[in-house]
Amino acid sequence: MRALEAFEGSLDVCERHADRLRWAMGELSRHFPLSPGELGELTDVELAIIDQFIVRFSKLQDAMGAKLFPNVLALTQEHGDLPTFIDKVNKLEKIGAIESASAWLRLREMRNQFAHDYPDDPEIQAGLLNKAYGMADDLLDCLSHIKVFSEPYRAM
Length: 156
What we know:
single chain, 6 helices, mainly alpha
């Protein structure tokens, strides 16, 4: 029962991040793809929503990788001896919890790119935002896939 409680708790956190990410994406949809010039013309409110998008993308990706994935492995009793993160992601792909380990690693790399700030280069900023906006649905789909995958284990 402990594994189920931990899974449900981490899923709830991920769902909150996902809801806020979806909201930010909806608010920003008319701006994408975003050009470097348009980036400089955004209002303070629109820039705050972009910040919300970046934060929620990053937090959702972090929460899934750090909390949800290990809890999926515990819930399915597939956690075994998986010393590295890549071992865990490969195991999740093998059992069908995620569709692609390599796709997940691309999402992780996108989150890592947000850690670098390029305040004086709107071309790089717009490029990163466009790339992330295009990948955000993949991140949300991964969460949805895990929810569907976990249903039989949650019903036990």
